[in-house]
């Protein structure tokens, strides 16, 4: 398997026989939790952690879109094996969320809800036929999830 298949399939989680998108989301939230856990050990400011989170999201998103472009030569458009978009979506959902597993679990649940039901503009993005549309519908689902989580946190509901 070449590097683009490894990236696009979320280190192979896209080949899960059941719910590959959920498997990719779980991997994504686990990787982001570890990344943030390690960052907190370096005694750096919260702003720097947010900057590094944003950098990681943008870097992996751009790398993911490039890998999606490459695997589309062999795989169908938005094939079920492609889960790098779910990984980025869930990373956005947990952006600036306290480093507690319950919030990361809420992020997975909300993200999968928005990704599966595709409300509002998500469905329009999903129906576009481009490498970017594969990624952007999950970016929007992650953004909706982040907004809901931040509102719930702000009002001390969760």
Description:
The structure is a single chain. The protein has helices at residues 3-8, 20-40, 46-71, 84-93, 101-117, 122-127, 131-154. The chain has seven helices and no strands. It is mainly alpha-helical and 158 residues long. It is globular, with a radius of gyration of 15 Å. The mean pLDDT is 96.
Terminal CA distance? 42 Å
- Could you report the average pLDDT, rounded to the nearest whole number? 96
Largest sheet data: none
The best one-word shape is globular
**Helix/strand/pairing class, anyone?**
mainly alpha
Tell me briefly what this model is:
The protein is mainly α. The protein has one domain (3-154).
Characteristics of this structure?
158 residues, globular, 0% strand, mainly alpha
Topology overview:
Blueprint: H1 3-8, H2 20-40, H3 46-71, H4 84-93, H5 101-117, H6 122-127, H7 131-154
Helix pairs in contact: 2-4, 2-5, 3-4, 3-7, 4-5, 4-7, 5-7
